[in-house]
Design a protein that fits this description.
heterotrimer, A mainly alpha (487), B mainly alpha (241), C alpha+beta (173), B: 241 residues, Cytochrome Bc1 Complex, Chain D, domain 2, C: 173 residues, alpha+beta, 2 domains, 3 helices, 10 strands
Chain lengths: 487, 241, 173
């Protein structure tokens, strides 16, 4: 009885809406047989993650207060007060990381399979803008986590915007919603994160999916089968006719497995590692902080540290334009010809190089060796082996090394800052004269300490550093030393 | 037929149970953030405060660092707690001990400094072991460098050499640069408390009678007499140019 | 039941095209009247580009001579919902007497908060390792210039600075 009732309702709905009749052919449309492969699941996985982000994001917005004076407290309440609020925050955070990651993998697969070529140029361009939207969501989401990282992250954003010639100052004011970071800034970013970019994302996503349906899933690239604008579409139609399989369920089941897998992975991460932050109350007068961006922007953070100063403004401003311009132009630059990665060594190499560069920069970003260790001077002890057997003067020198913040940039025994060279064994690399000169005059990216050290402090410091050499390696000496006789 | 139905009912109940557990019970998952009270307590934790603010100079465990041995019952018995607090707050001008109090440009609040003082006393002091010992007071009387020379010769010279310029076991302690970087009070503290972690004995010495308060002052006066009025920069071995 | 075409569509072609043009014009007008305020509202922060104002940092005596201290003021353009972000910090260096230097906490490289180390008399930035001397000049690292300096004045024994907007390379205080 209930079964019959349900069928009746379904029939009535179908009669009035006609959605079933409209959607069935879409679900069942034929795709090339070999595309029912796990290589083709990254797009739908990204879609699944986006759905998760929408669901968790809407839930978070039920509690979150987009007001600079209360946003932080509402996040703390989500973490501790709201039932399972921490889990939704965690899922939203890990979901954002996963979405960026899977989206990049999707893009890479599309690039290597030549799927951006004729006639799918617009699908690719649409995807490029989807990537930009996703990164935009990632950055604005980081701002909504209204903590110290968010505050100073905005400062970095404003500093970059200010470098734009001519429009810089105006851009900063429009970005921040005023002359300085404050309440107006957060409201602005909230609107961008929950209204503007999501709307744009959904519109682009609709177009993207429509184009995929209209132009067909890219066939498995075969080496030697070149794309020709005259014949491609006809050949594709013939192949699908001859050897196609229905998308649902043959290809879709692999998509569904991948979708479930990425969402489950995000949920497991959320349960195990929990939410990120909020890290420190957003009080800009608390300067005892070392701001770091979220994972997906670490490579940019690293790039800012490593670019030579004179190229910086140029690369900051021109780099994104060139990168986006190149991605948009790509299907027009190589819209036809070989699709298979086996016959496109240049493309494979370029993709590998970009991956390697971003991977390396991200790796560097996690350790950020260019940053001084702000509490290195007071938190990293002098290794006891460098204390034992030292004279009173040398011990004073070790103290000078500590309390003049040398350890913020130099390490001893593997502890301390990594900006400057490690000082273990420095005495066998530099002579006494060179040590004195380096301390007093600086150079090679080291500040000159001449005005900031008393003569006795220099003497003690150099005496201590002269003890830093391996037992079996002698202290470095000036070649002319012996000729001039004893000092 | 009946079996299938009960099986279905069973799996349904299991699913509901799992869902119930997930909705109600997963507040005990490892990812759940710690209460903020725990974080607040952390800012007053001695171990953390010491490790981030003191360990750099005084050593990871309070000793074997270039600065004074804090993990030393004799030193902690010698220095009055108020003085300990004052030194952390205001530092010792002219030496490597800098001011840590917020109002003096440092980064520690008053309760944090108190936590440091109490933490050191609770962990590293040992009044029991010094009972009955005539430990000289922290602040001493005025010393006389001439008597100090005699005290030096009998109590210190065997290690630090006849002139104080270093000997069998001890190092040069009259170097003008060294003396420019150390306060008289720090010299007195070292004479009395020693650097037992680095092999220098306390006021009881290794043989002979323990030093009195006056003798301590005298030997410090003798050391201070070696201070140079002006300490020059280190001299280059090779003339430049 | 056939519709009354006579009633639904205008009689003459010229009337038809007039109505179409009128519809276009009316919608264009509506778009303009709605769009201009929206654009103006969005670009509002540009037109109200407030100039810097003088801010009281407190009595001169609260800054010890030959020392550099963190001073805190309230951003003059604050709104009540700014919360703690209305507070802005700056480094005040008092040379001697009434001679001062007031630096923004924002690093000249990318705006991170620089920290003062009185022991080595250096400012260090925790982000990309910019280092500055006590007079604010660049010592090492990626910053393209020295620290941003506020304009200051001493009036009736109190230190005032001109501030209010985030210092950046294109608008250095």
């Amino acid at each position: 009885m209930p079964m019959r009732f349900a069928t009746a309702i379904a029939k009535w709905l179908e009669d009035r809406t006609g959605l079933g009749a409209a959607l069935t052919p879409i679900l069942g449309h034929t795709v090339p047989r070999r595309t029912a492969s796990f290589w083709y699941v990254f797009g739908s996985s990204t879609l699944a993650l986006f759905a998760l982000q929408v669901a968790t994001g809407v839930c978070l917005a039920l509690v979150y207060v987009p007001s600079a004076d209360q946003a932080y407290q509402s996040l703390v309440y989500l973490n501790h007060g709201a039932h399972l609020g921490w889990f939704l925050r965690a899922a939203h955070f890990w979901g954002s990381n996963a979405m960026v990651l899977v989206l990049v993998v999707h893009m890479l697969q599309v690039f290597l399979f030549g799927a951006y070529k004729y006639p799918r140029e617009l699908t690719w361009i649409c995807g490029v803008f989807l990537l930009l939207c996703t990164l935009g969501m990632a950055f604005t989401g980081q701002v909504l986590r209204w903590d110290q990282d968010a505050y100073w992250g905005l400062g970095i954003g404003a500093s970059i915007a200010s470098r734009a010639p001519g429009i810089g100052p105006g851009l900063v004011h429009v970005l921040l919603g005023g002359p300085i970071i404050g309440g107006r800034t957060l409201s602005r970013f909230f609107t961008v994160h929950v209204f503007l970019v999501p709307a744009l994302l959904m519109a682009l996503l609709g177009l993207h999916l429509w184009l995929v349906l209209r132009l067909g899933v890219n066939e498995w690239p075969m080496p030697g089968r070149l794309v020709d604008r005259e014949t491609y579409r006809k050949r594709y139609e013939e192949e699908v006719q001859r050897d196609g399989v229905p998308f649902f369920p043959l290809a879709a089941r692999k998509d569904m497995i991948a979708m479930a897998a990425v969402v489950l992975a995000v949920l497991v991460c959320a349960a195990l590692f929990g939410p990120h932050g909020p890290r420190g109350f957003p009080d800009p007068t608390v300067i005892d902080t070392a701001p770091r961006p979220d994972f997906f922007f670490l490579w940019l953070f690293a790039l800012f540290a490593l670019l030579p100063a004179w190229t910086e403004t140029f690369i900051l401003l021109v780099g994104p334009v060139v990168a986006i311009g190149f991605l948009v132009a790509l299907p027009f630059l190589s819209g036809a010809g070989e699709k298979s990665w086996l016959r496109r060594p240049g493309s494979v190499l370029a993709a590998l190089l970009i991956l390697l560069a971003i991977g390396t920069l991200t790796g560097l970003g996690t350790t950020s060796p260019w940053s001084p260790l702000m509490d290195g001077w007071s938190a990293t002890p002098v290794p006891p082996i460098y204390v034992k057997g030292r004279s009173a003067l040398e011990l004073r020198g070790a103290l000078v090394l500590q309390f003049k913040q040398c350890r913020n940039c130099h390490s001893l025994g593997g502890e301390g800052g990594l900006r400057g060279p490690a000082l273990d064994g420095v005495a066998s690399r530099l002579t006494r004269d060179q040590l004195i000169r380096q301390v007093l005059q600086g150079g090679g990216n080291m500040p000159a300490y001449g005005k900031n050290l008393s003569p006795a402090e220099v003497t003690a410091l150099v005496a201590f550093m002269q003890t830093l050499h391996p037992v079996d390696e002698p202290v470095a000496r000036t070649a002319a030393g012996p000729l001039l006789g004893p000092r | 037929m009946r079996r299938g139905a009960s099986q279905r009912a069973g799996s349904g109940a299991f699913l509901v149970l799992m869902l119930g557990f997930f909705v109600l019970g997963c507040d005990s998952l490892p990812g759940r953030p710690k209460e903020s009270a725990e974080e607040a307590a952390q800012s007053m934790d001695f171990e953390l405060l010491y490790a981030t603010h003191c360990a750099g100079c005084h050593g990871a465990d309070g000793n074997l660092g270039p600065a004074l041995d804090l993990h030393d019952p004799v030193y902690l018995a010698l220095v009055p707690p108020n003085r300990l607090r004052a030194v952390i707050e205001d530092g010792v001008p002219g030496t490597a001990m800098t001011a840590f109090a917020k109002e003096r440009g440092g980064s520690l609040t008053e309760p944090q400094i108190e936590a440091l003082v109490q933490g050191m006393l609770a962990r590293w002091s040992d009044a029991q072991s010094l009972r009955g010992m005539a430990l000289p007071p922290y602040a001493g009387p005025l010393g006389d460098p001439r008597r100090g020379a005699e005290v030096y010769a009998t109590a210190c010279g065997s290690c630090h050499g006849g002139e104080g310029r270093g000997g069998k076991k001890g190092h040069d302690i009259v170097d003008s640069s060294y003396l420019a970087l150390v306060s008289d009070q720090a010299l007195r503290s070292v004479v009395i408390a020693g650097r037992t972690d680095l092999g220098m004995p306390d006021w009881r010495g290794t043989r002979g009678s323990p030093l009195t308060s006056q003798q301590g002052s005298d030997v410090v006066a003798w050391l201070a007499a070696h201070r140079a009025p002006v300490v020059g920069r280190p001299i280059f071995e090779k003339p430049r140019g | 039941m056939c519709p009354n075409y006579e009633f639904a569509t205008p009689a003459s072609p010229s009337r038809r095209s007039f109505l179409f043009r009128l519809a276009l014009a009316l919608n264009g007008l509506a778009l303009l009247l709605a769009g201009v305020p929206i654009l103006g509202y969005l670009l509002g922060p540009l037109s109200r580009r407030a100039a810097q104002t003088w801010i009281d940092l407190g009595p001169v005596a609260s800054f010890p001579e030959r020392e550099t201290r963190l001073a805190v003021y309230e951003n003059p353009y604050r709104v009540v919902w700014d919360g703690a972000t209305a507070k802005i910090a700056c480094w005040v260096r008092r040379l001697e007497g009434d001679r001062f230097q007031v630096f923004a906490v924002n690093c000249a490289h990318l705006g991170c908060p620089v920290r003062w180390f009185p022991q080595s008399r250096l400012f260090m930035c925790p982000c990309h390792g910019g280092v500055y001397y006590e007079d604010g000049s660049r010592a090492s690292g990626p910053p393209p210039r020295g620290l941003f300096e506020y304009e200051w004045a001493v009036r009736a024994g109190r230190l005032h600075v001109r501030g209010g907007q985030i210092p950046t390379l294109s608008e250095p205080v």
